Amino acid sequence: MEEYIGFIQGYIATTAIDSQGDQLTPQVIEKFADDLTKNPQKRTLYFNHDMTQPMGYVTEFYVETKGEWKGLFAKVGIFKSRLDLWAKIQSGELTGFSFGARVLGMERKMSHNKVECNFTVDLTNIDWDTLKDTLTKMGAKVDVTVRKAVDAPTSLAITANVATIAGLIFQIYT
Prior knowledge:
Elements: E1 4-14, H1 26-38, E2 44-46, E3 54-66, E4 69-79, H2 83-91, E5 101-111, E6 114-123, H3 128-137, E7 140-147, E8 152-160, H4 163-172
Domain Phage-like element PBSX protein XkdF: 16-102
Organism: marine sediment metagenome
Protein name: Phage-like element PBSX protein XkdF domain-containing protein
């Protein structure tokens, strides 16, 4: 394991509405913490979702609850090899955490007042349950297709009552 130049800490996920208008449920926060416990490889942080640019590692984390609000608080060690990013953190240029996903393709069908979309999504630091839960909370019906060979879903079938959801989802995850 690489040594750290320093540490940052803060909430890496909460049930509050984020800057993109997304909101995670308390169950997703708990699952996220459980996933980090069971899969330490998912604790690596990447700069701007670029899997070729690891920048740090979640060294400690816990779920905090305040009434109906939940948050996943983490301490992250920034790798010594990322002095460039440590300087940006220290100057205030880098200030937050983000979970990433990338839409690889999308098919959209309109029928009456419903939009049906099939997405093929490549996820980086977010799991399928989190994405499904977020989309469901936005009012979409989501079915996940699982590729058994690697036990990882490869596509989402989304049916929404509002035509703008499909465009919004495409915009958020591209």
